[in-house]
Amino acid sequence: MTTQSEGTYERLRSRILALDLAPGERISERGLEADLAASRTPVRAALSRLHSEGLVRRDERGWSIAPLDLAELRHVEELREAVESAALRLAAVRADPAAVARLDALLDRQPDDPEGGVRWGEEFHAELGALSGNPLLADAIRTAMTTLSRTRWLEVTTPASRAGQLADHRAILDAVRAGDAESAVARAVAHARAGAEHAERLLRGDRARGLRVVGA
Predict the structure, then answer these.
(1) Nearest C-alpha neighbor of 165 from the set 99, 89, 111, 97
(2) Are 54 and 146 in contact (CB under 8 A)?
(3) In whole angstroms, how far apart are CA 66 and each of 20, 28, 95, 118?
(4) Reduced to 3 states, what is the DSSP secondary structure of residue 36?
(5) How far apart are CA 195 and CA 161, in angstroms?
(6) From the CA atom positions of the chain, what is the Rg in Å?
């Protein structure tokens, strides 16, 4: 992807994650070209990439921002919990000290903005899964985290929420380092569920204000 295409993708993705472009909102290539000051090729490349991430949809009428489906998000959360728990049980036995040290370094570089926080969290959880020594588990975790990116944005919108996220991450990694699989799993499950519940409460409020949030 060219530098211009990457920049166009990043700007459009940020607007979607921040809900500046509302779930269900229709968008057009021509409109995005004007809004993002980009030519057609990078806009199309960005839309294609965002489509693969599940953030936009295409139909015979063009493009739209994917709606937020609470039922679907719960299913993804359940998948994340199951896969991450399996990965952590293996990581507590297999984790390479050098890889654990790299995750420590990642935690020391937590961004202070929501967009950076979403990517940082995604990277942490994927690399945490990689400590299992099973790349398929790590890939499944990364895919789930990408699908959950808009709700995860809601989890890191304030300094206090980002501080809580960092504390949770350190506690999970410390348990892996100590070889305490059950503690690592328990902490990771509590961390994921708390974030999901907080995001769902916010989304239900947004639905009351007219944002397109579907599902029970």
Answers:
(1) 111
(2) yes
(3) 13, 14, 37, 18
(4) coil
(5) 9
(6) 18
Q: Domains in the chain, start-ordered, CATH in brackets?
A: 3-66 (1.10.10.10), 69-214 (1.20.120.530)
**Cα 124 off chain centre by:** 11
Write the CA distances from 99 to 13, 102, 193, integer angstroms: 30, 5, 26
Distance of CA 176 to the CA centre of its chain: 22
Q: Which one, of 72, 118, 41, lies nearest residue 32 by Cα?
A: 41
Q: Which amino acid is at 124?
A: F
Q: Is 68 helix (H, G, I), strand (E, B) or coil?
A: strand
Which bin fits 24, alpha (ψ -120 to 50), beta or left (φ > 0)? left
Overall pTM > 0.85: no
61-96 residue pLDDT tens: 889 998 888 888 899 999 999 999 999 999 999 999
Alpha helices by DSSP H, the chain: 3-17, 29-35, 40-52, 70-94, 97-107, 114-130, 135-147, 149-155, 159-177, 181-208
